Structures are given as structure tokens and as C-alpha cells.
Amino acid sequence: xxxxxxPTNSIQELDTEGIIRRIEEDGxxxxxxxxxxTPDSSEKFxxxxxxxxxxxxxxxxxxxxxxxxxxxxxxxxxxxxxxxxSQECIxxxxxxxxxxxxxxxxxxxxxxxxxxxxKTISLKSSNLDGExxxxxxxxxxxxxxxxxxxxxxxxxxxxxxxxxxxYQLPNNDFIQLEKLKVGDSLMVNGRPCLLKISxxxxxxxxxxxxxxxxxxxxxxxxxxxxxxxxxQKQNIFQNHMNDKNKxxxxxxxxxxxxxxxxNTIKEQFKNQRTAWNKGLTESVSxxxxxxAETLRKHHHNNEGGEHNSNWxxxxxxxxxxxxxxxxxxxxxxxxxxxxVQVHHKDLDPLNNDRENILxxxxxxxxxxxxxWHISTxxxxxxxxxxxxxxxxxxxxxxxxxxxxxxxxxxxxxHNSTRYCNYSGGVTFIxxxxxxxxxxxxxxxxxxLDSESxxxxxxxxxxxxxxxxxxxxxxxxxPQMARSILPNSLKTEIVMTMNLREWRxxxxxxxxKVAHPQxxxxxxxxxxxxxDILPVFFxxxxxxxxxxx
Length: 548
Hints:
The protein is α+β, with helices and mostly antiparallel strands. The chain contains 17 helices and 18 strands. It has 4 domains: about 5-85 and about 420-535, Gyrase A, domain 2 (2-Layer Sandwich), CATH 3.30.1360; about 90-190 and about 380-415, Hedgehog/Intein (Hint) domain (Endonuclease - Pi-scei, Chain A, domain 1), CATH 2.170.16.10; about 200-240; about 315-370, Wheat Germ Agglutinin (Isolectin 2), domain 1 (2-Layer Sandwich), CATH 3.30.60.
């Protein structure tokens, strides 16, 4: 059943005192009057520069607003080219396959080869049973710059996204990041980061400190291949660079000598090549005699325990860890009891802190060591931190239906709303000229006169939802079927503008000649901003919306 709602707007949290203070500091730089700053001088100064028309100073501060409206209005909003817009999206360095980040997939679109082959790349989605299955993307989008937040989980999975991006919950629902908090659980299919240093630190160790990949792997107790992969990903790895024994790679051979040596060995094997000392004894060969005497001199039989030449001082770290976790008989990740083993998160078997060790089944152990790409099931994980990471380029992907999700850095996330599947119900925005009973949003038929034009609009929306679902049932994909839905379809958009552009937006979009739906949104946003930061907006005259 279709749902009908009114448009809503919200302003992001603001440091109002900081904005006012910084605008004064920036403005006084132009007038060389920094010495005139006092605790009470900011508002008077800002009103003065606005009155003089010196509004370029206002461009140094920005405000973001979230707007829920119909898609016809969003088409009008995005005509303000100075603004930045975003919906659900993730950071460009997010891995979506074993070999590609989302940014790399987007960059491939710019050439014929990549545009064609992007369609053949198999990404991964999660079905309703939590099974990881292959899926293909329809397209990948660049969505501009936006503020991103990094989510970190108990098992070490990390991902950066906008606060509006949706993550999967254990009940298979998707929820926006802004509604999540530390302690909540998400569905993941990833692994902890093995080499826990930044790219800049790795560059310093490899390029400036001249450490080899082996030395770096030994220093941080991670596999050599982990370091090698990170260096190759940054395109700075060179064969034998920083190796402390480069001479072992130089045998003074040429291509001709290598070919000659290879042919000689082939001929020897054709003629039943044998070991040099086969059939020889000490009495007939001086070389065999020297070899035998050396073996007799240095050979010994190893004893047990601490008398063994390989004695390491006691039980290994894994044995100690098993003792610490002996009361746990099921996998702490997936609750499976098949072949439960001990896993060290940092791969250091001597670090047996309880926070560093897990009891896991064979399948989860493989996944934790070799990456989320080999896993076949999702599992629940707990959020331990959500951190503001600043402004970054962000992207999103649309996936083939019916699995409208993909695996990114091990998280199960929703794909772009550009091709959302509304099979569960379509939401429409009620235009301001349609008058309804207060709070009556689900069934408008009781609020509208049967002879009114609004009843025609309502019937059309209901009919569109019915026909949309029929197209889905008959094999159309959501992006194909969505073309039948009207402009009244509910859409969400986040818009960011500097203070000067917001002033222009309000003057233009609250005017009586502006479109009624745009006026409805603009007047509401103006009221919120004028309440929060009156010094920037209270000189603008806004006429109230008159009944239509």
C-alpha cells in the first residue's frame, strides 16, 4: 500500500559561535582590523559587511541540510551549481572486489575497455539466507565530495561512508549510519587489517628507511605477502629494492649462458643423469670420504623436551591461548562447532591478551587470514567506534536486482537508491495544494472529496504503484519499472552551500513567483536557519505561504 507524507527538512548540527567568530576573523583580514575584535564585536561586524554587499566573506563557511521531497523538486534543487549534493555513498578507497576499489571501477568507465569490462566483473551480494553470492553491477557513480565517517567493528572491519549510507542489520533490514551507535551489530563478511600502519608510514619505511618487504613483515609480525600487496597497490614496489644481499641475484649469466645450461641439463636427463656420488665409496672417492667424515663428526640424535636442539622454552603461544579459551567450544564469529581453533587478531602467537584471541571454526579462520573474498556466509559484528574522517570523494554502485546490496570492505551495504526496488511499498510526497486532515498520511481517500482534482492525483499515484509492482512481477528490473513512477515519488537529498549561496537560495526560492513546492521547502529551511544564525539571514524578507 502506498504511503503519503509531507516534505521535511533538517539542518546538520552547527557550531554557531565558531561560524560567527570565524567569519569576523576572515572579514577583518580584508580590512586589516583584527585588533578591533572583541567578545561582542562579531554580529555588528557581520551585519555591516552584509549591508555593504561584501558577502564574499560569507563563502568561507558552509551549512548542510537534508531534504525529503519529491523528485521533481530535487531536479530544481540541483540547478544550484555552487551547492554540493549527496545521498548514500562510500569513500573511494573502499574495496568492492579482491582487485578493485570503487574509485578504480569508476575511473575504468572513462575508457572503452573499462566501460565494457566493468559489466563483466563479478561483485558479491548477500541473499536473505546470509549467503554470499555472485552479482553484477549495473553502473558505478561519482557523487562529489561529502563528509564521511569511519565505522570500526569488534573483529577489525573498517569502512568510510556518508552518514546516510545504509548498512545491513542482523534481521536483514538496512539502516542509515546516522541511526547507528557504538554497540550496535551489523552484518559483515570481512577480515581485520593485517598491517596496521598507514600508507604514509609504509612509504617512509620502504622508500626512506630502505627496509625490504621481509624486514617490514618481520617488524610488524604479518605475512610477507601482506606487505607486498600493500606496496604493489601503491605502485611503489620494485623487485629486489632494499634487499641487503643483492649479489645473490647476480650470477653473471647471460641469456645465451642460461639457454646453454638448460640444454645441457636436458641432455643429461635424456642420458639417465644420476647424482655425482651414486655408487661411489670412501675407498675410491676422496670427495665422498670428506663428506662422510663431516657427517660423522657433526651428526647427533635429538633428545626430547629441553634437551632437543629445537627447544623453544615451553608451550607455544597457540597452546597457551587454547588453555585460556578452553571453556569456549563454539566459533565466536558464526557459532559453528566444527573444528574450533584459536586465532590471534594481530597474527602474533605470543600476544595472548583476551582482546587479541578468538575461538573460531575452520571456515572463519581461513577467512580471517585470507580475506573476505573467500567467505560464503555473513555474520554479525559489533560496532566499536564511529569517527568523523572529514571531506572525501564519494561513490556508489547500483546492483542487479533482486539483491540490492553489495559487499564493501567486508560490510553488507545497500546499493545506490538511484535504482531502489519499491516492491515493499511506494512513498509519495503530498503537494502543498493538496489539503488533508492533520496526520492522515496512509489513506488519503477519507480526506479528499471524491470530486476534487486532488482525488485524481491520488488515484494516479495509487495506479502507478500497482502498475510498478506488476512490471516487477513480469520481469522488469527496478530501474526499468521506475520510469512509470511520477514526480511525486519521495526522494532524499543532502545539499551543502556556503552562507552567501544560502542567502541567494532563500531570496530566489521564497519569492512568490517561485514554484509552490520549492517555496514550501525554502521557507521551512529559512525559518530553521534564521533561528540558528539570525545575523546572516534576518535581513531577508520572506512572505508567508498563502493558501492555494
